[in-house]
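Can anyone check this?
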Amino acid sequence: MNRVGLIFLLVVGAIVYFFMTDYGARLTDKYWAKFVQRPAILLELDSVAADTHRSWFERTYAPGDFICERKRLKLGDIDCHGEISEFNGVIARRIQFYFKDDFLYNIQLTLKGRDHALLIDYLERKYGQPRMIEGRRDVYGSPIVVWDIRSGIVSTSREAKKDTESTMQWYSVKAVWEGAF
């Protein structure tokens, strides 16, 4: 085999690996997000408090990483959202911080379904086994699981299909108390 044929096979093999396998696609997503400078979020959910003021958010994250808009939603009146590369080491796509009366009320994380098992693994290692919420299912029919943590509740679907989006929600103690969950 000549050099051109060998180079062609190496290029095709790399393309197949990075775009056709789950692991390769995860690597591609991760490094693309870093290349376009999406922030990686490190946030201990069990240490976030319901009295966390929006000024904490503005001090913690760079001014261009997130867009904040006033909205009238059940989850809060200010929605700060942006594209991210990862959340506590788990590859993720987007995060939204919701504030109610300028205090953190809810966090929503969005990731690809193929990365959902990594999220579940992280949450189980961090917070232990979740409890199932009887009768509650996501839009795809998967049961909702919940971790009760010091700062509120973390919830997500038990499973996610690879070709769908997956979400994780953190509800502050105040949000749970007021019935947002």
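Reply from J.R.: I decoded it. The chain has a mean pLDDT of 82.
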